[in-house]
Write a structure and sequence with these properties.
Chain lengths: ~240, ~425
């Protein structure tokens, strides 16, 4: 019996040792491979001091793929991500985009912001009718009737926090470093909006409940307007 | 008289014959030594040119981020200012469409532009000068065959006095040794091929060498160096404690060069970029040849004698214990309870020379910024390291780095929050 216990102790000691020196057991999954991303991009949008980390789960694959290429190639600027993406192939970026796109996570409930009736009217008019005098189509012609996006690369506008929407539209509007250095159909539109309109739209979008699905495809006219983004979204370079 | 003449003629003739013989031998040796592998010679001239352009990584420097291939515009920041690379597509106005093969040879071999202007060594002609005329002309032919792109690039933004080109005359007399690679007859053909690639087209020296204030490589030993204008340290290829391959197997070196990962190391930062853009395309023969040469490099650093590390004072122990807490919380999942990692996926931190290197720049950078090894054909879906700069404070980064440098049998200097702050600065 005494020997048995000794042997048992010995075996246990060996096992413990082995566990310490055996290579870490790493799951062969994409979830494991993108741990460097999920440290910032959790299941929800996150505020962390001054920083703001948008959620990326459930967004359209083509949209995510375009953004990843933009960050890597310097068309959208955020240094921490540029460093991570610098040496990734288009194929891998596509795979990562697909991984996040099919993650089905519940959306946050709408923000509670007080919205003045004038703001709501202003926003609703631009979103559903646009302004033909300034050549601004209704946002819904591209972002979908339900504003949940249009495959493959026009993102949904619901479920995004107000601060994020303001930052993106503001960035395009001012031609800032973050997103405004490159011309595309969205940048052209945001440049035309006034700050008042941007604020109203951001508030209005942020209080809408999320429902519906992305729609099928852009009209011929709109896809011509966004031709350079569509091209990018095609085959790997 | 006639006889004398004949005799003199004879002597001359013999001398000529002898010379000719020597030259042929030399030439033959040359051909034998640095010639392309059989894999490569089975390719067409066009394909060989394309291959050599990959090995020289012309695309990497002559293409702006997200820009048109070879149309230039890439910004190369150095301690003298920023160089903007020129357009080398065959466009007649804005590229090198009007260049002759001779003009191109002068650029590669002598570092002179078509108009005779001296070129800045930010274009690594100090290495490319070793490239043979045959290879240079294959490269030229390939570059002339790619689509012409009309693109004018902004001029360099170089600080005074470096913006004064004639200064390059002085620099060149001091530091530029022009000349095609000369094979070492006492070595094998493979070794010579490796040396030719590493010293020439591969321009490993451009980074892996200490630089003096004039931006010239200080010696030819491929000792490590802080890369100009970046906060990365390129470790020495002639020290087994840094990046040397003396005690590695040829297979391990080949794996590291061509896939970016190996059991003992992973390529990160600028080196990951070199692997993605260039080294992953090496033919098996050339990767082996490089490895054979790298493994054979003589050691420049005196090997550190075994030291007995004195017991640590209590305050150091406490400092490291703080670091250990951070390690357990944030790092252990991937790098393991005893720093063992998962080779080829998550690098081991125990017994890892990158971790304990005297200059801690790269370790600190990795913890602050994270990173992925490059995607390569052999490792197309790499795993990544998260950035921690927005997760833990500089003091905590210093503690955890100090901990991993002194755990599991590692011995390295302690790192302070000030070191971390310095590593944050500067472009990447």
């Amino acid at each position: 019996m005494k020997y048995f216990i000794l042997i048992l102790l010995f075996v246990l000691a060996c096992l413990a040792n082995a566990a310490e020196t055996l290579p870490v057991d790493v799951p062969d999954t994409l979830a494991e491979r993108v741990k460097a991303c999920t440290i910032c991009h959790g299941a929800e949008d996150r505020h962390d001091g001054d920083s703001y980390y948008p959620r990326i789960a459930g967004k359209l694959e083509g949209y995510l793929f375009n953004q990843l290429r933009h960050f890597r190639d310097g068309r959208r600027y955020y240094q921490p991500m540029a460093i991570l993406l610098e040496n990734m192939s288009d194929e891998y970026l596509r795979e990562i985009a697909r991984y996040f796109a099919v993650l089905n996570l519940p959306y946050p409930s709408p923000e509670s912001i007080t919205l003045q009736p004038v703001e709501a009217n202003l926003a609703r008019r631009l979103v559903y009718s646009g302004d033909s005098r300034r050549n601004i189509p209704a946002c819904s012609t591209c972002h979908g009737k339900e504003l949940m996006g249009t495959a493959p690369f026009v993102p949904g506008l619901l479920g995004l926090p107000r601060a994020y929407i303001t930052a993106q539209l503001g960035g395009w509007h001012s031609g800032g470093l973050i997103r405004g250095k490159v011309a595309n159909c969205m940048a052209d539109i945001a440049k035309q909006l006034t700050y008042e309109e941007i604020n109203a739209i951001a508030k209005w979008l942020a209080v809408q409940p999320v429902s519906g699905e992305p729609v099928g495809e852009l009209s011929v006219e709109m896809s011509q307007r966004c031709a350079n983004l569509a091209l990018e979204n095609g085959e790997a370079r | 008289m006639m006889q004398v003449r004949r005799a003199i003629f004879g002597v001359w003739r013999n001398a000529f014959l002898f010379l000719g013989y020597m030259l042929t031998m030399l030439f033959a040796a040359n051909v034998m030594a640095v010639n392309a592998s059989t894999e490569e010679t089975s390719l067409s001239g066009q394909q060989r040119g394309e291959y050599l352009v990959r090995v020289g990584n012309c695309l990497g420097c002559h293409t702006a981020k997200g820009g048109q291939p070879f149309a230039g515009g890439y910004r190369l920041s150095t301690s003298f200012g920023t160089f903007v690379t020129p357009n080398i597509t065959p466009d007649k106005e804005t590229g090198i469409g009007l260049w002759s093969e001779e003009d191109f040879w002068k650029a590669m071999h002598e570092g002179k532009s078509r108009d005779g202007r001296l070129l800045y060594p930010a274009f690594p002609y100090t290495d490319y000068t070793k490239v043979t005329r045959e290879d240079a002309s294959l490269i030229f032919a390939y570059l002339q065959s790619i689509p012409a792109v009309s693109q004018v690039n902004p001029s360099h933004e170089i600080r005074f006095p470096y913006n004064y080109r004639p200064l390059l005359y002085i620099w060149r007399t001091l530091f530029f040794k022009q000349g095609v690679y000369e094979p070492d007859q006492s070595r094998s053909a493979k070794w010579n091929r490796g040396a030719y690639l590493v010293q020439g087209l591969g321009h490993c020296n451009a980074c892996h060498i200490a630089r003096n204030v004039l931006g010239a490589s200080q010696d030819e030993t491929m000792a490590g160096g802080q890369i100009m204008g970046s906060n990365w340290y390129a470790p020495s290829l002639t020290s087994r404690r840094e990046a040397g391959g003396m005690d590695w197997t040829i297979e391990e070196i080949v794996a590291l060069l061509s896939s970016g990962v190996s059991r003992r190391a992973m390529m990160s930062g600028p080196m990951a970029t070199v692997v993605r853009q260039s080294l992953q395309y090496l033919s098996q023969d050339d990767a082996r040849a490089m490895a054979i040469y790298l493994k054979s490099l003589p050691e420049s650093n005196n090997v550190q004698p075994e030291v007995n590390y004195p017991p640590m004072p209590d305050n150091v122990r406490r400092y490291l214990a703080q670091g250990e807490k951070i390690y357990v919380k944030y790092c252990q999942d991937c790098h393991g309870i005893s720093g063992q990692g998962a080779p080829g996926i998550y690098p081991a931190l125990a017994d890892n020379r990158s971790v304990i290197m005297v200059i801690p720049t790269n370790v600190i950078r990795t913890v602050l910024n994270g990173g992925y090894p490059p995607t390569t054909r052999a490792n197309s879906r790499p795993y990544g390291m998260p950035p921690f700069q927005q997760v833990i404070r500089d003091e905590e980064v210093a503690q955890v780095v100090s901990f991993i440098r002194n755990a599991w049998g590692n011995h390295g200097s302690l790192v302070s929050a000030v070191d971390v702050g310095q590593s944050r600065e500067g472009s990447h």
